[in-house]
Design a protein that fits this description.
The chain folds into 3 domains: 96 residues, Winged helix-like DNA-binding domain superfamily/Winged helix DNA-binding domain (Arc Repressor Mutant, subunit A), CATH 1.10.10.10; 43 residues; 56 residues. 67% of the residues lie in helices and 10% in strands. Helix 3 runs antiparallel to helix 4, helix 5 packs across helix 6 and helix 8 packs across helix 10. It is rod-shaped and about 85 Å long.
Length: 207
């Protein structure tokens, strides 16, 4: 089969075999593969070329996604599948993993800190979110044990967002349910709420 190359927009090159469109690839990869106009290729060579270009496309898309933010291995594979790179997603992601661009342990620590700092999530919710991202349970345990969940943070959260609900039983129950969804245990919530209400009572008594 005869291979012909036609320049497309930007750095794209359209590959044709025996006059029929085959695939589009970037010019840098064309040079890397040593492709040229009038080149003769066999059926098996064409199949290998298709796989090589498919992996290249998936790899480039993965790099683009990683340039925006860090991802877990599972999350990146799923996104590549959504973008139409399913057949080559695992190969491309494992290549990035070998290069050190993907590291689930590093991702998990960074993501957990963000969830704690920006969303005020408790331990159980952080565990759930890491699991949802496809992080291994052993890594999750390591990350959770390395993160700090000070009781002062929960107290500050209650005072900032839920203090006005603590005036009656219905409001307290609403606060407890909201904090349970954020991943705090019932004991943690009970102690924090009690600490705030006790402080208010003692403050009132002193007056």
């Amino acid at each position: 089969m005869l291979l012909t190359l036609k320049n497309g927009k930007s750095d794209k090159v359209h590959l044709h075999t025996d006059g029929e469109y085959f695939l589009t690839v970037d010019s840098a990869y064309v040079a890397e593969l040593g492709l040229y106009n009038g080149m003769t290729v066999t059926e098996s060579e064409l199949d290998e070329l298709k796989v090589s270009i498919g992996i290249r496309r998936a790899y480039n898309k993965a790099v683009d996604l990683l340039s925006r933010r860090d991802h877990s291995k599972k999350e990146l594979i799923e996104k590549l599948k959504q973008k139409g790179h399913g057949e080559y997603a695992l190969n491309a992601v494992e290549k990035l993993e070998n290069y050190g661009y993907i590291d689930d342990r590093r991702f998990a620590f960074i993501y957990a800190e963000e969830l704690i700092r920006l969303k005020s999530y408790g331990k159980k919710r952080v565990e759930q979110e890491l699991y949802r991202k496809g992080v291994d349970r052993d890594i999750i345990s390591e990350v959770i044990s390395g993160c700090e969940f000070p009781c002062e943070r929960l107290t500050e959260l209650i005072e900032r967002k839920y203090y006005r609900y603590l005036c009656d039983e219905k409001g307290v129950n609403k606060t407890v349910n909201a904090l349970l969804r954020l991943g705090y245990s019932y004991c943690e919530i009970r102690d924090a709420v009690k600490g705030i209400t006790d402080r208010e009572e003692y403050g009132s008594a002193d007056e």
